Amino acid sequence: MSDPTPEFLLPDKPLEDRKRDRLNYASFAQRLAHTISRRIPVDGLVIAIHGAWGMGKSTMVNFVEHSLMDLPETERPRIVRFNPWWFTGREDLTLQFFDYLLRGLDDGKLETEELRKSLADFAGLVSKLPVPYLKEAAQFAEGLLEPNRKDVQKLKADIVSKLSNQDRQMVVMIDDVDRLDKEEIRLLFGVIKGVADFPNICYLLAFDRQVVAQALTDVQSSNGEEYLAKIVQVPVPLPVPPRTTLDGLLEDSLLPLFKATPKELFDKERFQFFYSEGIRYFINTPRDILRLVNSVALFYRDMQGEVKCTDYVALKALNVFCPSVYEVVEKNKDMFAFLEEDRLEPGTRVDELKRFHKTWLDLVPEKDRTRVRRLVSVMFPKLAPVLEAIDIE
Question: Based on CB atoms within 10 Å of each CB, which residue in 79, 110, 146, 280 is the most buried?
Answer without folding.
Answer: 280
